[in-house]
Each structure stands twice: as structure tokens, then as C-alpha cells.
Amino acid sequence: MALGVDGRVFTYVAHVLAVASAVMVLVWCIYYRGGLAFEATNKSLIFNIHPVLMLIGFVILGSEAIISYKALPFSKEVKKLIHLVLHAIALVLGIVGIYAAFKFHNESGIANLYSLHSWIGLGTICLYAIQWVFGFVVFFFPGGTPSLRSGALPWHVVFGLFVYLLALATVQLGFLEKLTFLQNSGLDKYGPEAFLVNFNAIAVIFFGAFVVLATVSTPHVEDPNSYAAISDG
């Protein structure tokens, strides 16, 4: 059942938290970790691309794709296209971000796919891709029958939110894993960098919560195929 609160309130807060999280991850990777590069003698610069693209490109843009379908005052077809394109961009940037992590590991002589973060992360990006392909085929092109779309839409929304929550959990595991490695290598456990990473992790949790709240709140413009309509059904 939809919340009796205008979804714009949650959307505004989510956007503020998204900007804060994006700024914090950039400050961390550029100011504290030395910058970003696909080719570098200092292999850590290659790794730094990973958290930036996974948070800003994958999670934040993916969140915008979710919010856009609910909050934008456009026709259903326009919102569907924006939703599809934003998810596609998020998926591509997420794949590049994962590639950066593999590249860093391979060039640094570090094993791949040994941590829970990497396992869940790889599974999440695969599920995200499956969800996008399903949405494209059933709701965009060639498109299913009206009855098929009607029956598939609730499952598409629920599975999409499940994958989104997996992405948020993967981010938390990534922050924890990297910060633990840094602290074991001598980083001050109570220093500004450690606090920055932890504050960003908390910001991402609240950001995700407000994105989910925005999807289950009362929409500004009612749409028979909106999230609210699904929740009320």
C-alpha cells in the first residue's frame, strides 16, 4: 500500500544525499587516495576508478532511474524511455567499474573473486543486466501483450528493488573491505579518511532508504502503471 506522503519530499532528500555521497567518494579517491587513472605505475589509481564508478555511475544513476519513473511529470512512454536509458548507463558504468577492479588485481598480482564483496557484487551486476534485458524486451521492444505486461510489472518492480538493495549492500561491504585493508596497512583508525569513508557508508544507507520510500509513496502525478498503482493493487 502506498504511503500517504507526497513522494517529492523523499525525492528531494534522496538527491541531497546523492550529491553528498558523490562528493565524499570523489574527495576520498582523489584527495586521500591520489586520483584516478586507467594506466598508472601506482596501481591504486586504477582501483580508485572502481568505487567512483560503482557509487556514482551504478548506484546513484540506478537510483535516478528508479526515481525518474515515479517522480517525473511526463507521459508514461517518456518516463519509460528515461528509466530505460538511465539504467543502461548505470549498467555500463558498473561494468567498467568492475573491470577497473579486475585490472587493478591482475596488474598488482592480487587474486580475484575471493571476498564476499566481490561475490555479491558480481552477482548483483549480472542480475541487474538480466533485469534490464527483461524490461527492454517486455516493456519496450518488441514489447509483450497488455496482459503479459500487466502481469510482469509487479514482479519487475519487486525484483528491481531487490537488486537495488543488493547493490546497496555490496557498497557497504566494499567500504568495509577497503577501509579494513587500509587500516591494516597503517591508516589511522580515527583519522579523517576513516571517518570520511564511514560517513559516506552511512549516507549511502540513508540515500537508499529515501529512494525506496520515494518508490512506495504517493506519486505527484498518478499513473495507472506507476509504483503506487502496483502497491494499491
Automatic annotation (TrEMBL):
Domain Cytochrome b561: start-end pairs: 13-216
Keywords (A to Z) from UniProt: Electron transport, Heme, Iron, Membrane, Metal-binding, Transmembrane, Transmembrane helix, Transport
Annotated compartments: Membrane
Gene3D superfamilies associated with the record: 1.20.120.1770
Cofactor: heme b
Molecular function in Gene Ontology: metal ion binding; oxidoreductase activity
Gene Ontology cellular component terms for the protein in this record: membrane
PROSITE patterns (UniProt xref): CYTOCHROME_B561
Segments crossing the lipid bilayer: 12-33, 45-69, 81-102, 114-141, 153-175, 195-216
Presence of the UniProt keyword Transmembrane in the record: yes
Membrane topology: Multi-pass membrane protein
Transmembrane helix recorded as keyword: yes
Protein name, per record: Cytochrome b561 domain-containing protein
Species this protein is from: Aristolochia fimbriata (White veined hardy Dutchman's pipe vine)
Source lineage: Eukaryota, Viridiplantae, Streptophyta, Embryophyta, Tracheophyta
